[in-house]
Amino acid sequence: MDETGELIVLGRVSGVYGVAGWIRVYSFTDPRENILGYSRWHVWSDHGWKELDLETGRRQGRSVVAHLAGYDDRDQARGLIGREIAIPREQLPALDEGEYYWADLQGLRVYNRDGQDFGTVSHLIETGANDVLVVEGERERLIPMVPDEFVLRVDLQAGFMEVDWDPEF
User: Fold this and answer.
1) Distances (CA, A) of 109 to 54, 95, 137
2) Strand 63-68 relative to strand 48-60: parallel, antiparallel, unpaired?
3) Are 29 and 17 in contact, with CB atoms under 8 Å apart?
4) What's the CATH superfamily of 102-163?
5) Whole-prediction pTM
6) pLDDT in tens, the chain (169 residues)
7) How far is CA 18 from CA 22, 33, 66, 81, 152, in A?
8) DSSP 96
């Protein structure tokens, strides 16, 4: 967090594209090109978050390519590889009831219906059929993020979720 408020990571720079300073972006948004809807990106640097203006971008095959103001050659752009891209939380669209941003689920405590503590949500995996919660505790558990079937309750205020999941799985 910095003076801009809470930042939510939407992707990372995964490579360079061409010789004119374009970058390849691994976008966490769905669809991937939604990251291009934000004209000012916060890109992590050695000195903290740096605001950069997105000049243009497009979907390129399975990834996204973009050009940021001030990055006009391949060598400049190469310095961004591996850096996270974020935006202020307040720029994200509001969600409907029962919808969550992945960033909101990470760090939640996970309990089964019997109250057994499975640990915390480390991250999520996109599988195509449904997202999967990776829960780190005494061991790692992979729990499908399927509301009303496996995920019974999410309480962001209290910082936990209740799941219908066998402790042996």
Assistant:
1) 36, 22, 10
2) antiparallel
3) no
4) PRC-barrel domain (2.30.30.240)
5) 0.78
6) 344 469 999 999 999 999 999 999 999 898 999 999 999 999 999 899 999 999 999 999 888 999 999 999 999 999 999 999 999 999 999 888 888 988 899 999 999 999 999 999 999 998 878 899 999 999 999 999 999 999 999 999 999 999 999 999 8
7) 6, 19, 11, 14, 47
8) -
Q: According to CATH, what is the number of the domain 7-90?
A: 2.40.30.60
Domain spans of the chain, in order of start: 7-90, 102-163
Is 165 exposed, middle or buried, given 0-12, 13-18 or 19+ CB atoms closer than 10 A? buried
Q: Whose structure tokens read 């978050």?
A: 49
Give the separation between CA 161 and CA 148, rounded to whole angstroms.
Answer: 12
d(CA 97, CA 101): 12
